[in-house]
Please model this.
Amino acid sequence: MQNCPTKALSRAEDGSIHRDNTVCTLCMQCVKVCYAKAMHVYGEDVTVDELYGRIRNQPLAWRSDGGVTVSGGEPLMQADFVAALLARFRTYSLHTAIETTLYAPWEQVAKVVEHCSLVYADMKFFSADKHMRYTGVDNRQIKENLLRLKRQFPEVELIVRTPVIPGINDSPEELQAIADFLATVPGLDDYELLPFHAFGAPKYEQLGLTYEVANLKAQDKEELARINNGLRERMGLTVKTNEK
Ligand code: SF4
Model:
């Protein structure tokens, strides 16, 4: 509390210390002096050269079934960096992938996808209203990018995934609307339903945010695989028999 230059930290009646995010400037002074190591910095600034050097020393990346996947957050938020990094690996014919929402202007998408072997793209809702309500952004750009991706990059593998949130986007109507739209996406290679998990809960807690889906229960995996295959069939994709 003494080290905070903006007085963002204060002690509550029960003795616990609270941070006022409206005045915190993320200067990280408190992280340096916290004896209990209660605060952490996630992430760091690196150059493309530094990160390339670190990954280059990972033997798994260089196995015949290995490769490099850039995930997030959102890789397209740092499109220049990700494009430069993946381009380095492509010069060695290494498999390269991104996990993305595709929520970005096409120029940013194209810049990165040009250096990808595989794109995993999220499709959380077909309904624009629901997408806006639950993610805070419109999904028109996502749909446009999906329709455009394989037209411009036919050699890139495209797998669309829906992270299933029980009671939010798992109704038959919503999933069928997603499937009907994806049936129109040129060159779609596969579609996957991702079971719900609450791995984000600790991060929300550390940021002082409410994790509103903490009490939702993950779906039965076999049931999800059955639904997934039904949707694949609706899209004209190959049905998988050994999916768990
Ligand atoms: S990061 Fe810590 S020290 Fe810096 S303003 Fe925020 S609470 Fe204060």
